[in-house]
């Protein structure tokens, strides 16, 4: 079969055929990284040139094009009010989601002509800001969850990001089937829980991380099938343990009764005590993999020849983050059921796509956003059931391939093709995009990358009470105090409390938070650890391990074999 893009293919073949294993210097970070035989094989399979940045930097830039955990009340030009994922200074043209999804919206109405001989990324911003986008991304079956971003089948959820099938969930991110809980990050099947990171099947568990099937426990780390435990790590099938010390039920109950977590100051003291005296001194597994073969990464499950973080049921998914059921993909993030795709973001149920964002059920779509059921499109936004479109302009099949061949050839010669959209083209500010949660930067460092920065100036100017004016104990607060806005000491942004949050904290006997929800989320994500891997040595057998656990904790890291043996033998 003859090529549709002969000029591009000839130019790309010249690059690919000359590739040999070598070391590169990351164009963004200055780090050295390897282009080995495997990477060369992947480049040839996907028909892209080798990357110019280290793997984690490729993830960082893609997540700069996703809405973050901050949401905004925006007023449209016609006076209507909407909740939006775009900050008030964003140049994005936005519409209410249902209006954008309606048959009345026609993406072809915003078509523009592309100039193949001009830099693609210089032409993109003017076109991108002109085409309307949905103010929010939400599932159609959400109920009473106006402030829930990127979630499916959410009910009574408030300020949540991602996830599915959650109910009565507050201030939480990327959770599945969680109920009556608050401040969870990357949790599933948890009920009546507060302040958890990466926990599964837990009930009445508070201030804990990486626990499974636990009940009535507090400040626990890496515990499984435990109940009534406080300040414990690495326990299995245990009950009534305090700081990893076994107690009788009576002794445990008596000791727990002396702890007052209803006082915010005392709660924070206990948090710090457990962190420094127990968690930081305990062995940790270098990574978490379940039923995986030939994989490198963390949070991998039922996968083969895969590398990345939180990838499930996938095969040959390299440098991929947050993915499910993907095959033969490279540099993907937040994707499900895709195959043969490269450098894509939430390009679900798609095949053969390159550098796309928010596309669904597409085939051979490149450098496009929010397209649905499209084929053979390049540089398009918001199209549905279309073929042979470029910058939202319809062409004949022959015209399309001729233009795309010329455009891709010039992009390749300029070093554009294969590279993701630059930071400067994102309609999100760096610190309001989801990349801020995973790769936090200062304003200076973000702007050096080309990203925009949102200062929350209007929000910070709103009247708010100093957090010191809020009583430390929830029981000591008045109704008036609970309806006030308080100034966060970290972000300087005002925040308040919603009724379900107050009721939940009262029922659990724990103090109200004293930081803005975004500051709390950033702290939890920091405990999930950076998405940057490094080499270390197992503290037991000294074997080399690849981990993303920060180096300050690496002296207690164990490889999978040594960790399993240690947990089994620990009394």
Task: Give the helix tally.
Answer: 15
Q: How many strands in all? A: 34
Span of the ends, CA to CA: 66 Å
Strand order of the largest sheet: 9-10-11-12-13-14-15-16
Weakly predicted, low-confidence segments: none
**Approximate shape:** globular
Structural class: alpha/beta
Q: Mean pLDDT, nearest integer?
A: 96
The largest pleated sheet is described as: 8 strands, mixed
Strand content: 15-25%
Helix content: 10-25%
What Rg is obtained from the alpha carbons, in whole angstroms? 25 Å
Structural write-up:
The chain has 571 residues and is an alpha/beta fold. Strand 1 and strand 2 form a beta hairpin. The chain has 15 helices and 34 strands. Helix 1 (6-17) packs parallel to helix 8. It has a domain at 6-57. The model has no long low-confidence stretch (mean pLDDT 96).
List strands and helices in order, with pairings.
Layout: H1 6-17, E1 22-25, E2 32-35, H2 37-46, H3 55-63, E3 72-75, E4 81-84, E5 94-95, H4 97-101, H5 120-130, E6 133-134, E7 148-149, E8 160-161, E9 167-170, E10 179-185, E11 194-197, E12 203-209, E13 215-218, E14 227-230, E15 239-242, E16 245-246, H6 249-257, H7 264-277, E17 284-285, E18 289-290, E19 296-301, E20 307-312, E21 315-318, E22 320-324, E23 327-330, E24 333-336, E25 363-366, E26 375-378, E27 387-390, E28 393-394, H8 397-413, H9 435-438, H10 443-448, H11 457-460, E29 465-466, H12 479-482, E30 486-487, E31 494-495, H13 499-508, H14 517-528, E32 534-537, E33 544-547, E34 557-558, H15 560-569
Helix pairs in contact: 1-8
């Amino acid at each position: 079969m003859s090529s549709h893009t002969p000029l591009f293919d000839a130019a790309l073949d010249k690059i690919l055929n000359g590739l040999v294993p070598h070391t590169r210097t990351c164009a963004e970070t200055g780090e050295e990284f390897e282009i080995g035989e495997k990477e060369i094989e992947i480049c040839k399979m996907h028909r892209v040139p080798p990357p110019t940045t280290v793997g984690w930097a490729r993830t960082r830039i893609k997540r700069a094009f996703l809405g973050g955990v901050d949401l905004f009340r925006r007023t449209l030009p016609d006076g209507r009010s909407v909740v939006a994922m775009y900050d008030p200074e964003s140049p994005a043209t936005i519409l209410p989601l249902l209006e954008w999804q309606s048959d009345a919206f026609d993406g072809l109405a915003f078509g523009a002509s592309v100039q193949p001989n001009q830099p693609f990324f210089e032409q993109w911003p003017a076109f991108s800001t002109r085409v309307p986008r949905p103010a929010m991304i939400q599932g159609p079956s959400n109920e009473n969850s106006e402030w829930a971003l990127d979630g499916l089948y959410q009910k009574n959820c408030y300020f949540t990001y991602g996830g599915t099938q959650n109910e009565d969930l507050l201030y939480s991110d990327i959770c599945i089937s969680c109920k009556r809980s608050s401040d969870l990050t990357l949790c599933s099947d948890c009920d009546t829980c507060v302040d958890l990171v990466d926990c599964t099947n837990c009930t009445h568990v508070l201030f804990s991380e990486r626990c499974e099937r636990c009940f009535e426990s507090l400040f626990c780390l890496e515990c499984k099938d435990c109940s009534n435990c406080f300040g414990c790590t690495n326990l299995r099938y245990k009950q009534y343990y305090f700081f990893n010390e076994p107690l009788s039920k009576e002794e445990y109950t008596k000791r727990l009764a002396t702890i007052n977590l209803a006082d915010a100051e005392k709660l924070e003291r206990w948090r710090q005590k457990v962190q420094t005296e127990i968690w930081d001194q305990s062995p940790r597994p270098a990574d978490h993999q379940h039923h995986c073969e030939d994989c490198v990464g963390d949070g991998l499950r039922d996968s083969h020849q895969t590398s990345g973080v939180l990838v499930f049921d996938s095969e040959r998914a390299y440098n991929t983050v947050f993915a499910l059921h993907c095959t033969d993909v490279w540099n993907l993030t937040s994707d499900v059921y895709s195959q043969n795709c490269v450098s894509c973001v939430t390009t679900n149920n798609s095949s053969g796509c390159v550098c796309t964002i928010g596309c669904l059920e597409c085939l051979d779509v490149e450098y496009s956003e929010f397209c649905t059921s499209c084929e053979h499109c390049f540089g398009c936004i918001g199209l549905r059931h279309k073929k042979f479109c470029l910058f939202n302009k319809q062409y004949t099949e022959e015209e399309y391939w001729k233009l795309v061949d010329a455009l891709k050839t010039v992009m390749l010669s300029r070093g554009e093709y294969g590279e993701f959209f630059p930071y400067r083209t994102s309609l999100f500010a760096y610190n309001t995009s989801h990349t801020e949660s995973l790769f936090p930067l200062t304003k200076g460092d973000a702007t050096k990358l080309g990203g925009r920065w949102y200062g929350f100036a209007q929000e910070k100017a709103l009247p708010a009470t100093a957090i010191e004016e809020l009583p430390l104990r929830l029981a000591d607060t008045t109704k008036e105090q609970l309806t006030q806005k308080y100034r966060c000491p970290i972000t300087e942004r005002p925040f308040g409390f919603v009724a379900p949050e107050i009721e939940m904290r009262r029922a659990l006997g724990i103090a109200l938070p004293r930081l803005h929800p975004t500051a709390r989320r950033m702290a939890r994500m920091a405990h999930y650890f950076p998405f940057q891997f490094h080499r270390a040595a197992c503290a037991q057998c000294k074997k080399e391990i690849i981990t993303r656990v920060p180096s300050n904790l690496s002296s207690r890291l164990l490889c999978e074999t040594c960790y399993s043996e240690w947990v089994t033998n620990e009394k």
